[in-house]
Design goal:
This protein is α+β, with helices and mostly antiparallel strands and about 60 residues long. The chain is built from one helix and three strands, in the order βββα. The termini are far apart.
Length: about 60
């Protein structure tokens, strides 16, 4: 069974996935723009989850009025 790992090079902001032997699997981000895009997607998902939670709480509160 192969265990892949995500590697982040802090000096160059490069990120890639390697297998347990250290071979690059070709899945990753080669520069700051790609890495920033991926992190931006994560932020957008977090904001969507937060907004949905607020909407859900508000809808339950208003339904009990």
């Amino acid at each position: 069974m192969s265990h892949d790992r995500f590697v982040l090079d802090r000096d160059t902001s490069n990120a890639w996935v390697k297998d347990r032997n250290g071979n690059d699997l070709g899945l990753g981000f080669d520069n700051d723009n790609d890495l920033g895009l991926a992190m931006g997607c994560q932020r957008r998902l977090a904001v969507q989850r937060y907004a949905f939670s607020v909407w859900k709480i508000l809808s339950v509160y208003l339904s009990q009025q």
